[in-house]
Structure prediction request, 550 residues.
Amino acid sequence: MNLSKRRGALVAAGVAAAMVLSACGGSDDNGGGEGGGATGGTFSMYINEPENPLVPGNTTESEGSQVVKSLWTGLIQYGPEGEVEYTGVAEDITSDDNTTWTVKLKDGWTFHDGTPVTAQSFVDAWNYTAYSPNAQGASYFFSNIEGYDALQAPTDDEGNVTGEPTATEMTGLTVEDDTTFTVTLTDPFAQFPVTVGYNAFFPLPESFFEDPEAAGMNPVGNGPFKADGEYVPGTGITLSKYEDYAGENEAQADGVEYKVFADLNTAYTEVQAGNLDITRDVPPDAIATAADEFGDRFLESPSSQFTYVGFPTYDPRYQDKRVRQAFSMAIDRKAITDAIFNGTRAPADSAIAPVVDGYREGACEYCEVDVERANELLDEAGFDRTQPVELWFNSGAGHDAWMEAVGNQLRENLGVDYQLRGDLDFSQYLPLGDEKGFTGPFRLAWAMDYPSPQNYLEPLYSTAALPPAGSNSAFYSNPEFDELVDEGNRASSNDEAIEFYNQAEDVLLEDMPIIPMFFGLEQAVHSENVSGVFVDVFGQVDTSQVTVNS
Prediction:
């Protein structure tokens, strides 16, 4: 959610270098033109309403992440196909045992307020995000650092907070000097350097901690663009080029205006009219005509995106895995992709996208259509077919038609009626899920944060990733799954890690807390005003490389 030109190898001892899991993808040439030297000018880009203010550690969805990645640069960066590049703040990240990591920073980096980016900037940011009273959505990503547990408030069996954390700083983080800090993990994790390009690991300036709420609306980062003013909900935010940017990928344009639209169709129409320059998505009903209409300004590239329908496992109606298995087998994914998406989505047969090592074709037994078996399972579970199911999805993003198709198949194949619940925008929809507010199956999607099969498993389904610390919106918990993921994290080789991750996926796909639906392609359009546009495997546009045509 989920990104240059010198390629860097992952610097780590022994097996760590072998553990870099790179995504595969297509050509860099997607018809958007090439950047070259800075050209100036400004351009505009569509986003939906972000869930939260623009704080890196609390931005775990695609809309806010797009803006955050224009405003910040992390320790490492990812190339268009997910490859690790040492074009960020880190000079190197090394370890002798894959447990204690030394992070060495480059000199000369500053925040947009002119203050230096130091080792303390990272350590303070990570501690802030991990500290549970701050309720940061990416807190989970620090759970493998020593001392994380002490920053979590105690809870009862129902998840209610019963006290205060015993510490405010993780013991596993130590500042050695202005440009060096060490990270001590609870267990060996050779993939650690691969993860730290994700925005949860971005640094924060001292000014942030004076008023975090205000800083989220008027963000101060260290990236190629800086905020010209506050983020205005429902409207957007305007950024301008940061002239003192220390990175290799300086902004080509003078500025970018992020415009919030409540409806994707409206944004698409604005690009057609030349009033908007870029949208990263194409409405389903425009897919068949977009290529002809936009020519080489219609972009299509490999994606890490995985669309799924989750179950509220906290609802007694969906607690029996046989119900969840039955629903999955009653859905004909190919029929939906052909009818709604003009064949531009692939029916999902795994919980791990094909762009990373660890994907297995046909891993999901219950993703095959089998109406007879589905009805048998539903009867065995004693499911009440007289009551309709509520199907949830966020409004204005083109999900109406395919979620209705899912409902029609459930009605036809299982004799279960449905009601569509698509009346909430993205910023309302996600918090409702975190609050156990979904009363039926719900639509979500995931684009990888870093190129590893682990990222498709642990952040979405582990017990440690239950909201508000993570993105486990199904509220699924299985100790066997958690232990297998942990074994993969501790593995000493890439092959061994994938073996454990695949075993964890098998447990998940037997329990079916989610229905895998589609693997996608990135599809975007842009105006004649810009070139150098590319949607990477994470679903993001590198705005620093967009040029404004003279």
User: Anything to note?
Assistant: Residues 228 and 385 are 55 Å apart (CA to CA). Confidence is low (pLDDT under 50) at residues 1-37. Residues 494-511 form the longest helix (18 residues). The two ends are 32 Å apart (CA to CA).
